[in-house]
Design goal:
By secondary structure, the chain is mostly helical. The chain contains twelve helices and no strands. The longest helix has 49 residues. It starts with 12 loop residues before the first helix and ends with a helix.
């Protein structure tokens, strides 16, 4: 199976070496010598140095023992959905992001990925990686680097989600992303909203050229119609505008839902304050 575009567990240094995130430096060096390839040597260098090791740990299956790592990767290799039970939060999210990037994640799995980004925080991830580091005899992860790595991970997961759906027909892909926003944005949960904004930003980046072409085409058609109105060109203009609307729908939906949520919260707060004043 080819590596998933955008996010891939196959390309992780630990996966290339066939090791867990708790591997010691000695185990890493021995495995690289056994494999004897330039990729293995590069992977070993990455997981020996603390900073690149953190990137590899946070993007792999932290906390998972060897048997579980093998089972997860084997299931993914066969195109199946691994059992997420017992995996740490970042490990679950990484499995789902890998599936999403391959275009294999269904609506339930995409929803779970969004939910996991609402639950993951630096403290939880640090504890999981810290246990692996202790087992590996490595120093504990730096808090500031961990925060930055988590930010990058969220961006990569959002892009993986978009890449997976954008390969589908535009209307279907737009509807799928918009449905995710509708289910989650109104909850006004900050971490989840932050991830949804990343998803929208990734969608905009991936569809930017298509949206620009659609807008320019619509402008050209509108200019032609203003001089020589024709039914065919009018129908083409309507279809182009509809296509552009689909491409820009996710961001407009998120903005609307967030705005609506803020208004509802403000109304609740005002009513609560008025009730308190009356009680006094």
């Amino acid at each position: 199976m080819t590596p998933a575009e955008g996010f891939s567990l196959w390309e992780n240094p630990f996966a290339l070496l066939g090791l867990t995130a708790a591997a010691t430096q000695r185990e890493t060096q021995d495995r690289a010598r056994e494999l004897g390839t330039s990729d293995a040597q590069a992977a070993a260098r990455a997981v020996i140095a603390p900073r690149p090791r953190l990137e590899a740990e946070i993007r792999f299956l932290p906390g998972a023992p060897d048997e579980q790592v093998r089972a997860v990767l084997d299931t993914l290799r066969k195109g199946g959905m691994p059992d997420l039970w017992g995996l740490s939060l970042p490990a679950r999210a990484n499995v789902l992001a890998h599936r999403a990037a391959e275009g294999l994640a269904d609506a339930t799995q995409l929803q779970l990925l969004v939910s996991l980004h609402g639950e993951m925080d630096a403290g939880t991830v640090a504890a999981t990686i810290g246990d692996d580091r202790t087992a590996a005899g490595m120093p504990q992860p730096n808090g500031e680097l961990l925060e930055r790595s988590l930010e990058k991970l969220a961006d990569d997961h959002a892009r993986a989600m978009v890449i997976g759906v954008v390969g589908a027909e535009t209307q279907k892909a737009s509807a799928q992303i918009t449905a995710l926003l509708t289910r989650n944005a109104a909850q006004q949960q900050n971490d989840r909203l932050s991830f949804l904004r990343r998803v929208c930003a990734a969608w905009d980046r991936e569809t930017a050229s298509m949206a620009t072409q659609a807008r320019e085409h619509a402008q050209d058609l509108a200019g032609t119609l203003s001089k020589t109105p024709k039914v065919g060109e009018a129908e083409s203009l309507a279809a182009t505008i509809e296509y552009w609307a689909q491409l820009t729908a996710p961001q407009r939906k998120l903005d609307a839902l967030v705005s609506l949520g803020h208004r509802l919260i403000n109304r609740i707060q005002i009513r609560a304050a008025a009730s308190l004043m009356r009680a006094r």
